[in-house]
Amino acid sequence: MPPLTPGRRILINTFLIFHLVVITCWCVPLPIPFAGLVKELARPYLLWSGMFQSWDMFAPSPKTINSYVEAMVFFKNGHTKKWAFPRMEQLSFTDRYYKERYRKYVENLKEDNNSAIWADAAREIARLNSTPAAPVRMVFLIRYWSNIIPRDDDTIEPPAWDGHVFFAYNVQPGDLN
Fold first, then answer.
1. Residue 57 and residue 117: Cα distance in Å, rounded?
2. Is 110 left (phi over 0), alpha (psi -120 to 50) or beta?
3. Sheet harboring 80-84: ordered strands across?
4. Contact (Cβ atoms closer than 8 angstroms) between residue 166 and residue 142
């Protein structure tokens, strides 16, 4: 491999320094004015690239529910199929590394304030499951959740899961191309 030219070395170092500064400012939980400005300027890039972090698992208020999203796919021939996004607790360590972006995507997908992406998600699920012999007619997005209840004793009870269809999409003929 030939040595790097000075111009390429500068570009690589700039790229690395930019990402170190932006990710550090994004993750710092302290109210530092410079970090807040960097966060706001870099927010679109971090959200687009999937490099944002959410520390709500730890503090200041940890998550109080387990949740996941599945889809119910209805075909024109009357059959149905349950389709699920990858769930980290069901994957091997190696698969988790490669599919972590799906966890972030689903965490955002299920939120009501992100309803603008629901139709796109349903269309993609329809494309993934449709065949010429069995085209998809409709997709329901379903969110499931279970409360996380702190236990003071050693009893282990399986959590009670609730589910709710939060979006129904009628597949249009052009959606499957």
1. 24
2. alpha
3. 80-84, 65-75, 136-147, 162-170
4. yes
Q: Tell me what the mean pLDDT of segment 70-92 comes to.
A: 93
- Which residue ranges make up each domain of the chain? 6-49, 65-176
| 146 close to 161: Cβ distance less than 8 angstroms | yes
> Distance between CA 75 and CA 133 in Å, rounded?
10
Q: 6, exposed or middle or buried, with CB in 10 Å at 0-12, 13-18, 19+?
A: exposed
- 168 DSSP β-pair partners: 140
Q: Strand pairing of 136-147 and 80-84? A: unpaired
Q: Which of 99, 103, 73 is nearest to 175 (CA)?
A: 73
Least confident of 6-15, 16-25, 143-152: 143-152
Interior CA angle at 13 toward 11 and 15, to 5°? 70
What's the full length of the chain, in residues?
177
Confidence class of residue 98 from pLDDT cuts 50, 70 and 90? confident
Which amino acid is residue 159, in one-letter code? Answer: P
Looking at this protein, which amino acid is placed at residue 38? V
